[in-house]
Amino acid sequence: MLLDHVGYRNEISMLTMTANLLKSRLYSLNSLTFTENDDMKEWNKYSLMYRRGQEDVLNITIKKIEEMKYSLIQHMAQDIKENNIGAHAPFLSIVNGSRQDDSLELDSSPFLSLDSVTITVKKLLRKNIKLSQVIDSLFEDLEEEADMIMMLGLIKEKSNSSSEWKLFFDEVESSEYNKTPDEDIMELYESMLLPLSESYPDIFDTSIYTPHSLVWANHLLNDYSINDPLAIVPI
């Protein structure tokens, strides 16, 4: 089959989106409260019975989705442990012929969070204190500028030869995508990175922060990221 591989990034996104939609529906149901009493008409009582049934269905479904999400995180952690990295966007078998999705024998492990198997802005900044300090001084609202900060952090981490995500970075670099900087990338480079390089040459080294590195980071952000919270899925 050509379309049988979904990929962790897509699966996480779908599970998160579905859970959020169901939670929104459950919140709407719980925002209005009704008290059943003997004076209510039969159809009112049946409506409340139906409502309670809907709440039960939603709660059970949300719990099941959270269990599926946790199982997925366990599989991701196991794949990372075994260096089973390399699915290419759009995560279909037609472009991932060598990708194997056999069931993994999962290790018994303590609770794993999504942060433990993804690349987040906080992780990137913790790995480079000097970059973190400059980022704090440059951006007033880190959440609002998360995309840009993620790109800056990814480029810096890619230059680290001992990075825990080196295999992933190299795999993405070798994959097929448009590596030519377009007009928007060049504008971003000239308006932001060049001034940063002049102000902080030790942090924003022009041999590292180049138009091509911006293209690479933008590719990761577009094809390997999830939202809520923003993170890169490195497998």
Radius of gyration: 23 Å
Span of the ends, CA to CA: 21 Å
What share of residues are in beta strands? under 5%
Mean pLDDT, to the nearest integer, reads 85
What is the share of helical residues? 55-70%
Strand order of the largest sheet: 1-2
Write down the secondary-structure element order: HHHHHHHHEE
Helix/strand structural class: mainly alpha
Shape: elongated
Say how many strands there are: 2
Number of helices: 8
**Quaternary class:** single chain
Give the biggest sheet. Answer: 2 strands, antiparallel
Low-confidence stretches: none
Structure description:
- Helix content is 56%, strand content 2%.
- The chain has 8 helices and 2 strands; from the N terminus they run ααααααααββ.
- A two-stranded antiparallel ribbon has the order 1-2.
- A hairpin with a 4-residue loop joins strand 1 and strand 2.
- Helix 1 runs antiparallel to helix 2.
- The protein is elongated, with a radius of gyration of 23 Å.
